[in-house]
Structure formats: C-alpha cells, structure tokens
C-alpha cells in the first residue's frame, strides 16, 4: 500500500496559486502482469468519500479486492475526490 497526496490547481482557467490536495492510495498486487494498467476507483456521489481515511478502511479495501476475482491480479488506485474524505479543502456544508 502506498499513500500519496496529489496537488493540482484549484482552477486551471485562472492564474490563482490556490491548490487542492487529493489523497491517493495505491494498492499493489504482487501478481500484476508487466504493463497491465491499474484500475482507478473514483467514488460516486456527490459527496461520497473513498474510505481511505485510516488503516481499518484501507484494510477493508484490501479484503474487498482479495475477494473479487476480477481484482486480484491488478493494481488499484483509490482517490478521494475534490471536497470529500481527506481532500483539502474539504467541503463541510
């Protein structure tokens, strides 16, 4: 498991220096074939966090992927989208 924060401009259409930070968890499979693209998980919503906020939630992802036959031999990238979960800034309305 790798945990990262991906920083991007708040708006690509303006000259603002404000950035948003999106948490990203990469769940690597030891059996992923060379060159096989990862599966990207963007949660639904609006407003639904990905469930990557702590060790227990990440372990739930690992269990889910281990039980899903289609998922075992692939790397997976899970992202909290803008405004939810661990994303910064987080919308709290």
Explain what the structure shows.
The chain is an alpha+beta fold and 93 residues long. It is 14% helix and 27% strand. Strand 3, helix 1 (55-67) and strand 4 form a beta-alpha-beta unit. The mean pLDDT is 88.
The N- to C-terminal Cα distance equals 31 Å
Spatial extent as radius of gyration: 15 Å
- Number of H/I helices: 1
How are the strands ordered across the major sheet?
1-2-4-3
* Shape estimate: globular
Global mean pLDDT: 88
Supply the helix-strand structural class. Answer: alpha+beta
Low-confidence stretches: none
- DSSP E strands, number: 4
Please outline the major beta sheet: 4 strands, mixed
User: Strand-and-helix sequence, N→C?
Assistant: EEEHE
Give the amount of beta strand, in percent.
Answer: 25-35%
Oligomer: single chain
Estimated helix fraction: 10-25%
Comma- or semicolon-separated keywords:
14% helix; 27% strand; globular; 93 residues; alpha+beta
What's a concise summary of this model?
The chain is α+β, with helices and mostly antiparallel strands. It is 14% helix and 27% strand.
């Amino acid at each position: 498991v790798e945990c990262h924060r991906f920083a991007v401009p708040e708006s690509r259409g303006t000259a603002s220096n404000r950035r948003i930070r999106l948490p990203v968890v990469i769940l690597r499979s030891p059996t992923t074939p060379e060159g096989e693209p990862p599966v990207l998980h963007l949660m639904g919503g609006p407003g639904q966090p990905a469930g990557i906020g702590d060790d227990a939630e990440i372990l739930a992802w690992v269990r889910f992927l281990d039980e899903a036959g289609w998922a075992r031999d692939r790397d997976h990238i899970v992202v909290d989208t803008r405004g939810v979960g661990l994303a910064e800034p987080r919308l709290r309305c």
